[in-house]
């Protein structure tokens, strides 16, 4: 249980990013209650993985993500307002309304694409790494996916090639299926993968693995920086499994705020934590955990944190308004960008 | 048999045809068949794309001999030997390879798409790894239908890099399917040595990832293969999948006509010296099953060649399909 | 007659088939939980977890497994969650399922059904919304059905499962909640087209979700005194050319409507077939109304512009009637 060994201002920036992600997802869930937003997936509960990990990437490094992408994009600086506009299909969206939540992309922030077919991004991420190696750019490709993608054959083919050619790719697997429905005690971690440990899927290829608690920002940071270093020195790929408990609100088919809007003060005032979802608020919510650690390290005060949180909520409220006020694209837009 | 430890050769209660001389004869049948196919191809009497199993007879015969007649087998692009080992008729097999209407597929399937379901060789396939999920399906069917019928998938080392291989190991293990995976690891995937395809040169490693018990054996020792597959088959009937990796070598190119310049001649020579037929004969002579001086061995080889010569004559005399045959058997009648 | 929803008709067909035939099994992702739309809700409780089997996300191997199971006596029904993901199983479906009967001259058959939902609804975006039926109607050995009503959803799925050929059964998720009469006693061949609205002035040929759109277009045109025929093709492979050509001859003007992109869509095949059979009876070229040549966009307005609308259908018919032109076709339109 430790913070990443970084200067306090940078840690504070990570906290602010986590809060911004959290408030973005909550604003989206709220919006979905009154508007037809379509289906989407939220990153609630995984912020303490994505933020410290992606903070280690540099401009020019690429990251490929999947359907649970909002947190990843915000972590690398994509404008939440443009993201929300895209989710609502507006012309001001990151993809001019043509991609939707499942295909959010921002090349300038290192997200060439989001792929929504499970596992589909993995060979592409390996491909970028292949190019980086050939071109000698020193860049890294990060593949961000979940435990489900490991069931796809594409994972196996990609891991084989990445290991064979020592490609500069980091496989960051966010396993949010701890305590998954259907899992039996002492049996497979998920009901759909026969390997006792997800990391066992990478080891046979000689790919170094790390398994970390996805709410432990320090652990995530350590694993990721080692992996990136290995990649940049062209030693080859790495596999990081970051484990979290799935946020209860992500269990229903449509996300719901079952644990209530995040109450940041729960990080320092335990009396605010009720019995319902106690485990979540006390231990499993990575944002609250990070906040507690920030406080303990004296990197920010409770007042400052509340101020950051207010700013985050204000920012996301403005993003919602921006998105709702934005025009839809003209019909002709549907025919642009099919070909060069 | 006096002087021969029973455990060495015989499998008490083993399937019929699993006795040593029967195995030897079957291996010769396959060798004679494949050499005949090669000869006919070189003469232009057979056309198409052929992949011969010369040098890998130990795996085909060893594995098939450990199965029951109603167990089912799924093969690869290099499956003449698998089909013959399971009991296919050389006449109809050769007729199919030669495109005759009397072939197993009426000339439509050709060398890579042999199907002899009546002897439990369900089908071969030309897509690397494509047969592995099929074998899983047959095993799944056994469970659903409540029949004690095993499925076996042959595949090469090249299939180990395919996504379907990974998915199949996973599902077979998850569902504890009665399937035996038999990898013919001959070190080459088409023209490429395995080491340039993957860092994992022993495919049994992948079986371990999914908790599937695996054994690696000398594929050119037909008895070792037989015993390994027999043990695997017994365990897989109700105990979940098993994996046997048989190390072997193909003595011809990837396909007929392949000059195989990607191989060192010294490597070829090294493996020729380990020819499974020769090795087995030497073993049987040493154990007194075959007499030294080789009269019986010679007779077995001669009988095989004679049978194949006759088969070739009969097959090639068969009728060729006609244009209307092109559109038959596309759909159910 | 009972009123039922399209999705309930699907579940009913599965249930009735599984009751009648113990060889029918379901495989797919999350199907024990009903799948994303509830098509299989409750079935695992009735038939157990071997006949209703959840699979990992491994489309290639799951389809292959189903094929292998079909070759040895099961009648599997695979649910592919979104038609777009059938692309992961293309080798198994196209190279194996479609061809095993042919290559083996009928020794093997693959009585497999693949259910997949499709359609551009809900702004799911380019990888969750494609209409790909033309690809599969182009593969000899596969059958393709695309019902538009609950009654046809029921009858069609039962027919697909009964068929000894591999069938791709396409459900439009935009139709899942539509209600309709389910008359199981109607003697109707699901492999034939069905005239939904008799007419004399123009025929609109459509399938799946475009059938209700075509019917609405016909209603609007009726207020202008036009008597428009609407034919629901239902079976895309085989195409019911007899009904199609009869309709073309009777009305002399034809518009084909599909949600798939116009270019290379099945409308082209229908148009060519009609022109070959009835050229001299036509008063105008066959018009095709489909999506523009672009991936399905995610934004709601763009998606609405992408899917052929009732307005476009009406305009196309007007062009045929008033000007004798198929003006609906334009590059990129």
Structure, described:
The complex is a heterotrimer of chains A (340), B (333) and C (333). Helix content of chain A is 39%, strand content 9%. By secondary structure, chain A is α/β, with parallel strands linked by helices. Chain A has a 5-stranded parallel beta sheet, with helices on both faces. In chain A, strand 4, helix 7 (217-232) and strand 5 form a beta-alpha-beta unit. Chain B contains 12 helices and 8 strands. Chain B has helices spanning 6-9, 20-43, 57-65, 80-86, 90-97, 131-145, 163-175, 204-209, 222-239, 265-272, 276-286, 295-316, and strands spanning 72-74, 121-123, 151-156, 179-185, 188-189, 192-193, 214-218, 242-247. Chain B has a 6-stranded parallel beta sheet with strand order 2-1-3-4-8-7, sandwiched between helices. In chain B, helix 2 packs across helix 3, helix 3 packs parallel to helix 4 and helix 5 (90-97) packs across helix 12 (295-316). The radius of gyration of chain B is 19 Å and the shape is globular. Mean pLDDT of chain B is 92; it is low at 1-12. By secondary structure, chain C is of the alpha/beta class. Chain C has 2 domains: 2-182, 3-Layer(aba) Sandwich (Rossmann fold), CATH 3.40.50.970; 194-323, Rossmann fold, CATH 3.40.50.920. Chain C has 12 helices and 14 strands. Chain C is globular. The N and C termini of chain C lie far apart (42 Å). Chains B and C meet through helix 6 and helix 7 of B and helix 3, helix 4 and helix 5 of C.
- Overall residue-averaged pLDDT value of chain B: 92
CATH class of chain B: Alpha Beta
Based on CA atoms alone, the radius of gyration of chain A comes out at 19 Å
Distance between the termini of chain A: 50 Å
Using a beta-carbon cutoff below 8 angstroms, give the protein chain pair with the largest interface and the number of residues from each chain. Answer: B-C, 48 and 46 residues
Global mean pLDDT of chain A: 93
Strand order of the largest sheet of chain A: 1-2-3-5-4
Name the CATH architecture of chain B: 3-Layer(aba) Sandwich
When the domains of chain B are counted, the total is: 1
* Fraction in helix of chain B: 40-55%
Proportion of strand residues of chain A: 5-15%
CATH topology tier name of chain A = Rossmann fold
Overall number of structural domains of chain A: 1
Q: Within the CATH hierarchy, at the fold level, what is the topology of chain B?
A: Rossmann fold
Shape of chain B: globular
Order the strands across the largest sheet of chain B as they lie in space.
2-1-3-4-8-7
Beta-strand content bin of chain B: 5-15%
